[in-house]
Amino acid sequence: MQASRTGSDAPLPEAADVVVIGGGVAGVSTALFLARRGRSVVLCEKGRIAGEQSSRNWGWIRKMGRDHRELPLMIESARLWEQLAAEMPEDIGYRKCGATYLARSEAELHRHVDWLEANGHFGLDSRLLTGNETDRLLGRNDQQFLGALHTASDAVAEPALAVPALARLAEAQGVRLIENCAVRMIDHAAGRIGGVITERGRIACAEVVLAGGVWSRGFLENIGVAFPQLAIKSSVLRTGPAMVPCSGAIGSQRVSIRPRRDGGYTIARSGAAEFQLIPAAFRYLPQYMPMLRDRWQIMKIRAGRQFFGPLGRMKWGADDISPFERVRVLDPRPDASLLNDVMAGARELFPQLAGVAPVESWAGMIDVVPDEIPVIGPIPGHDGLSVVTGLSGHGFGIGPGVGLLAAQMITGDTPVVDPAAFSPTRFSRRAAA
Ligand SMILES: Cc1cc2nc3c(=O)[nH]c(=O)nc-3n(C[C@H](O)[C@H](O)[C@H](O)COP(=O)(O)OP(=O)(O)OC[C@H]3O[C@@H](n4cnc5c(N)ncnc54)[C@H](O)[C@@H]3O)c2cc1C
């Protein structure tokens, strides 16, 4: 799960065209595509590249099951992952091994049929498998499943390898990556962005891209911008090598499982997460009610240490130590009892896992916005400031596409898809309506 280090202890650059805040998949991709468009880019990461969500995720690069508003960008992103993986000198575990959502009940099957019908016009290779086909895929013959939704072209990669490798591509393109360097504030000059104030000093720039993952809301609120983004903790485990008839990524109600490059499996449960009861949760609660209503059976609500902690309400100035320096890498404790049950579910699905024990578990703090699609674009009233955030639990797959779109919007190039659905102003418009 550990990401490799990229970066330098060299003196801070005095200026750049663009400063990107955050070294997850969103920030690294944005930096790469900006550099490919001739911009000088400095990326500041408070901890290490891909230290948070971007190395902790399951590694699914899927089009299947996505919201129709982000599917065109995801289709582009899937193409980019394939292209970028081919450019990388190292093996990041990228494989088009397919993804499958199993259906044990009629209700699950109907949900898959509905998604397929609603998104048929995108021309994907997603299709329904019969019960027999599903059995064959799982290497069983007990007809436990009524069928499945399957997309042969969906892919996987090892996040802890892939995002640092993406960062090295960006470095090779001229991006300056600076780890252990938190950006505290935006520096305004003559009514627009003049630079950023980091813990190590100021970098002058005309454009700033905030790609801070779960920290984006706090950063924006500190400069007076309300942004409805909350945090959800999600736990994962991995096993060592095992002989399981599972060549692609498989999702079922009780367990989601992905074969790893090292012969083991990354295992978790979709939607089984802890909604963090932080002060912002009360402020933005009405906007999150539909999501909470949908998932109340599987999602726990927790008022924990985050309430008064770094994701709580805070205010700081350019000379103060910011929350970003206090927590270099957000490393929440995994939910052991949930993971025990998840492992039992995995063994029920694949009895071959009976003698296989987990070798590592971890958790990640997912940033989520009310409509669960990315937020990409300029922040009104702060000329020169854009955000690339809110990837809402499925941003590893769409990350390169998100970075490309953000870079195109900043450079004024024709955008790869219509960015309207991703506008940061959509939440304030809704609140005002
Ligand atoms: C358990 C889990 C499973 C998931 N599974 C999948 C999956 O299978 N497929 C999929 O597509 N997605 C998945 N996701 C979601 C995906 O990982 C995220 O959507 C994506 O990684 C978010 O990327 P990001 O760059 O926006 O944020 P992050 O990766 O969180 O990066 C943000 C970075 O910004 C830095 N930062 C913040 N503020 C500052 C500051 N002021 N100064 C400097 N640096 C700062 C942070 O340190 C952090 O490194 C999963 C997520 C989790 C946690």
Compact summary:
By secondary structure, the chain is α/β, with parallel strands linked by helices. The chain has helices spanning 25-35, 53-56, 71-87, 106-119, 131-138, 159-172, 216-222, 279-283, 285-295, 323-326, 336-349, 395-411, 426-432; strands at residues 18-21, 41-44, 60-61, 99-103, 126-129, 147-151, 155-156, 176-178, 183-189, 192-198, 201-204, 207-210, 230-239, 249-251, 256-259, 265-268, 273-276, 300-302, 358-368, 375-378, 385-389. It contains 13 helices and 21 strands.
Please give a structural write-up:
The chain is of the alpha/beta class. The protein has 13 helices and 21 strands. It has one domain: 3-Layer(bba) Sandwich (FAD/NAD(P)-binding domain). It starts with 17 loop residues before the first strand and ends with a helix.
**CATH class designation:** Alpha Beta
Provide a count of the helices.
Answer: 13
Structural class: alpha/beta
Global geometry: globular
Instruction: Provide the number of structural domains.
Output: 1
* Unreliable residue stretches: 1-7
Tell me the Rg in angstroms.
21 Å
Per CATH, the superfamily is: FAD/NAD(P)-binding domain
Q: How far apart are the first and last residues' alpha carbons, in Å?
A: 44 Å
Write down the CATH topology: FAD/NAD(P)-binding domain
Bound ions, cofactors and other small molecules, one mention each? flavin-adenine dinucleotide
Structure summary, number of beta strands: 21
Helix content: 25-40%
| Mean pLDDT metric | 92
What is the makeup of the main sheet? 10 strands, mixed
CATH architecture: 3-Layer(bba) Sandwich
Beta-strand content bin: 15-25%
